[in-house]
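In response to a reviewer's request, we include the raw inputs and outputs for one of the modeled complexes. The two entities were modeled together in a single run.
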Amino acid sequence: MNHFDEMTMLLYLEGQLDAERAREVSTHAATCAECRELLRALQTEETWLRESLRAEDESVPAHLIAAPERGGVPWGWLTAFGFALGGAYTVWSGFIEPWRAQAAQAGFEQGNVLTMIFFSGAFWKGWDAMRTLTEFLAVATLGMAGMWLLRRHWRHTAAIAFVMAAMACALALPSVAMAAETHHGDPDYALAAGEEVKTDLIVAAGVTHVDGQVDGDLIVFSRSVEVNGHIKGDILGFAEEMRVNGPVDGNIRAACHSLTIDSYVAKNLMTWSEEVELKQKAEVGGTITIGADSFDLDGKGAGDLAAFVGNLQINGTLGHDATIRGDRIKIGPHAEIAGNTKVVSDRPVDTAAGAKLGSPIQFSRPEHGPKYNSARYYWHQALGWGASFFFGFVLLLIAPAFFDKVRGACQKALPAMGFGALALIVTPIAAIVVSITIVGLGVGISTVLLYLIAIYSAQVFVGSWIGEKILGSGVGLGAALGRLALGLAIVRAIEIVPVAGNIWIPIMWIWGLGALVMTAHRLIRPAPAAAMA
Amino acid sequence: MMERRKTTGDMSAAELAEVLSQVRAGDADAWGELYRQYAPAIFRFCRRALPTREDAEDATTEIFVKVRQKLGMYDASRPFTAWLYKVASNHCWDTLRRRRIRQDLETGEVETLPLEHPEPSQLERLQTEHTSKEVRAALARLPDRARMALVLRYFAEMSYDEIAETLGVRRAFVGVLLLRARHSLRDALGGETAERHSAAGGKT
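The model returned the following structure tokens for the whole complex.
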């Protein structure tokens, strides 16, 4: 009988041969001394290898055992986060702020209301305060990063607690310094006529009546708001129904279901509401910027009008230009527009005979679909890429493991898409059911918000997965960011391809969403098992 | 398993499960405990898998960063050390692959050059003549993949399937890798027994 080769013997010793072959070897070895000897030699070599490798006769560096945090995640991502905040601040003060100032000077001539709302900080009171807060946060985060670095030398949790407490105090100070009167309605709030609030007034109530005077800003969260008194600052309102009958010396910024103004507003009006009505006595000293389903303008506007509306009726006076994008636009017999009127609509404008217009209406139909030959379109795509990259970056910093898992889950494309399609359809239905039943509107709205965020993040995960396929699975934040950047660029490039893009987007949504759902499900499930083990 | 327990401290299964659940809950002390318990073993693993001591130190800290991130993925029904070595080996292999100059067999092709059968007596002499330290020094001189294969099999006690997955080779190739690695190690230790004779094939 033939001898066996060394390979076969090794596999035999390691238990890697199938039963029949193994039997052949042992039968042969029983009769062949030569092979038996070699087998034994290989066996002892294996034992000797194990012993040599497993021998613990070298020292383990002390710092490895003593300092588990060295090179650990926390300070890494805390520093990164601090830098990100610092960077955000730089971008804000160096780029957005000057741009905003310019835009304000130019009187909001940009057509994109949404961009304006986001970048002009329409709904925020005092970006200056926000800026200092951001600045403070950046510094605080860096401080915390420093503390993590020093933690090894500190060791005493008491010292850390002391510093944390000091920081908390420092953080709390500015808010104490900001003077404002705050009221929680019980359930309603009323400021009677003749009464006066010397500072800002912040109200959260069911029904709010302000008949007295407010020297500062009025910030109100309420189901129904009626203002009859004099407001010397701005009105910032979130309400179902809001009526302003008293004079306002500042701006009105409101997000409401219905907003009615019948008084003098010295500065600008900006609102994002379902129905807006400027009655005959209403007069806005500055610009009017509106996003609404229906807007009736019977009063006066001294500055420009920028409107993004479904139904628009103008029967009042406009001192400047009007830029309108809408569906049904009606210019009544008493309307007066001193400047140019630009309209973008699918339907022709219904202009009454008596209307006085400074110049003929510049009418154009909206262009549907992307404008492939405009540079601006590509600039917007680039901005969109940047935004999604930043989103992914933050996600990566906050939950690297989760991010990794979801990206890994994208590998199982088909099941992911199945789950994704299900989640895409079922979640809104569930949210509606939740909203109209006893569970409540709050839960419903947060579900929808999370759902939208999840859909948005789908591209980040799918992109990251694609990036990994191309760039390989290198480790570290840098590699992960590289994958993310490249993947997102590819994903977004496919999106702008005419027909394929429209097919790709829903596929990507259900794919990424499915991966997210699968991972979340897996994360929630093994938890009790691990706790029991 | 018994051998592995020796190198990784003396935490009982119940203690380990307790510590793991505390770490998952974000307990920094539990993490420190886990780290102290397993860092030496992982360092030793890296020390063998990677060519220099500095590499091994860096890799150890990096691996624990990963372990902390990926702890949620650990399946509690399987041995923790096996999972730990899996993470460590993937990391080390990634590290090596990234810096490797394409000189050795990346493609996973089987070498056709036949190996000479070793002489049992010479094999035994090699074993008695060299200390563990010398063996490990020789190991460090081997090509990355050969060294990795030996470490994964005889230190981390991985199965052929796990080794194939880690090194990205076909399962059937793992045996060949191990055999060639053992020959290279014998060569490196200066054994004439494994000297190559291109003419002489194995006895079949």
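As requested, we also summarize the result in words. Residues 28-49 of chain B form the longest helix (22 residues). Residues 1-8, 102-110, 192-204 of chain B have pLDDT under 50 and may be disordered.
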